Amino acid sequence: MNPDPSLLVVPRVVLPQKRIRHITVIYNVVQNLNYGEKEDLLADEDTVSTAREIFTTLKESGFAVDLFELNEQTVGKIFELKTDLIFNLAYGIGSVTKTEAEVVKILEKSQLPFTGAGSRAIILTTDKVATKKKFIDNNIPTPKFQIFVSPEDQLEPQLKFPLIVKPKGEDCSLGIHNNSVVISKAGLGERLEYLIRTYREPLLVEEYIEGRELNITIIGNNSHAKVLPISEIIFGSSFKIEKKWKIVDFEAKWLKQSDSYKDTPGVCPADLDVIIEQKIKELVLKAYKKCGCRDYARIDVRLGTDNTPFFLEVNLNPGIGPTDGAIRSAKAAGYDYQSFLKEIVKTASARL
């Protein structure tokens, strides 16, 4: 008699994980900008310091580690690297703008193993509009929006003030200041004109969501992807006293001497209703997978006053310096800085 197929137990085949001994941390230095605001270079300075922190920490963990600065002169040398794994912190090729995906295409072509997302996912998520369309296609709530290519474009009637204006293809809060939130057509036109002139790209205009600002870090791949404790940005007294919009703008993210920076501490875990937290985590994992995220990422969510989570953007290869938000969540999950970096290495190497 043949056995019932439903009773057969098929043993899971576990492939041996490649042992990582030698890691090369790659990063880029932006020395000049062809567009944008002069303060934007602060975001790139942070990348360099993070690369050095990761180099030191991985070395203390027992790995052989190299630092590799990726620029216009060294890009061809990627193919000559002898390493077990590339820890990818390069957001472009030197000062060449809009080349983050090009870096990963080169890594893919070299067939060197590397941490973080593939080029298709980076192309998607560095475009805020394409990311929002992906959210909509997968029933993930996101604020209503419109693309503007000119200050003369007419506002669609379904969009209601207040609105927030952002460059379509920038990250790190570049081009976002407290006056990015507008409450009239005149204010909208003024902001559109300035940002199109400054960043030379289309703009995303979306409804401003009054509510709580949440950062969610995810680590892992496929069925092993897990959401770390949710972090919340707290907007302190200066936001009320100075009547500022509660957003993490450029000042709050990078200008350490500003009131906005000092008044936006992060707390983790966020105090959330269990049911709401579970709903957010389910949607986060869906967004992570549908956007092609890999190894680790951070997703930014605005929790509306009616407790609807509105997904804003997906950050691949997010900041993981010792004081960054992802590390705050990692610590709440029980990691220290060293063990979290080792977890990223382990997660990436499991794909090899």
From TrEMBL:
Alphabetical keyword list: ATP-binding, Ligase, Nucleotide-binding
GO terms for MF: ATP binding; D-alanine-D-alanine ligase activity; metal ion binding
Pfam families referenced in this protein's UniProt entry, alphabetically: Dala_Dala_lig_C
InterPro entries: ATP-grasp, ATP_grasp_subdomain_1, Dala_Dala_lig_C
Domain of life according to the entry: Bacteria
Record-annotated ATP-grasp domain positions: 132-346
PANTHER family: D-ALANINE--D-ALANINE LIGASE, D-ALANINE--D-ALANINE LIGASE B
Family membership: Belongs to the D-alanine--D-alanine ligase family.
Annotated protein name in UniProt: ATP-grasp domain-containing protein
